[in-house]
Amino acid sequence: MRKRCSGNMAIEAALFIPVLVLLIVGMIQFGKITYQYYVIKKMVYAAARQISLIQGVNFCDLANDVNAQAALALALNDSTGAPLIANLTPANLQIATYCITGPDAPPAPCENPGCPTIAQRPDFVVVSIPEGYQVRPRIPFIDLQPILLRPAVTVPFGGLS
């Protein structure tokens, strides 16, 4: 005697398809967040590289230095001046300098006593987003907490202080 199994496949598909859709949407969101992190990291790298190569940067007052702020604006905006990523401004970025103090010592923040004259030329320029850039994954029916992207880039200093 043969049992009738009609309808089992439809029930199994109805149970499996939503799980499959959530997995696919989750993978797409993970890819978007990874790409956004990559773009932000490249922007931070461009700012750090530009700051490390320009001449006459005032490392005593980086927040008000025209050259440093221009480098940040250049890295974060396109050729028309529009931001590449919404809500990411030069005010979100932090610039720090690091110096090597000894042959076996790791790089440490530069001590600049007696500003406005720099006591020591920095060896590295570090640009970071200390408070992070908030990204919220969008997956239907699932409320996820925002993810903070905190890229930091260290480049060797090649300019003159």
Q: N-to-C terminal Cα separation, in Å?
A: 91 Å
Domain unit count:
1
Adjacency order of strands in the biggest sheet:
2-1-3-6
Count of helical regions: 2
Helix-strand category? alpha+beta
Question: Cα-atom Rg, whole angstroms?
Answer: 24 Å
Helix content: 25-40%
Write the element-wise H/E pattern from the N-terminal end onward: HHEEEEEE
Number of strands: 6
Q: Unreliable segments (pLDDT under 50, ≥5 consecutive)?
A: none
Sheet with the most strands?
Answer: 4 strands, antiparallel
What is the 3D form? elongated
Beta-strand content: 5-15%
* Overall pLDDT level: 85
Summary of the model, kept short:
By secondary structure, the protein is an alpha+beta fold. It contains two helices and six strands. The protein has helices spanning 8-53, 66-76; strands at 94-99, 108-109, 124-128, 133-135, 147-149, 152-156.
Give descriptors for this structure.
161 residues, alpha+beta, four-stranded antiparallel sheet, two-stranded antiparallel sheet, 6 strands
Explain what this protein looks like in three dimensions.
- A hairpin with an 8-residue loop joins strand 1 and strand 2.
- The chain has one domain.
- Helix content is 35%, strand content 15%.
- Helix 1 runs antiparallel to helix 2.
- It has 161 residues and is of the alpha+beta class.
- The longest helix has 46 residues.
- The chain has two helices and six strands; from the N terminus they run H-H-E-E-E-E-E-E.
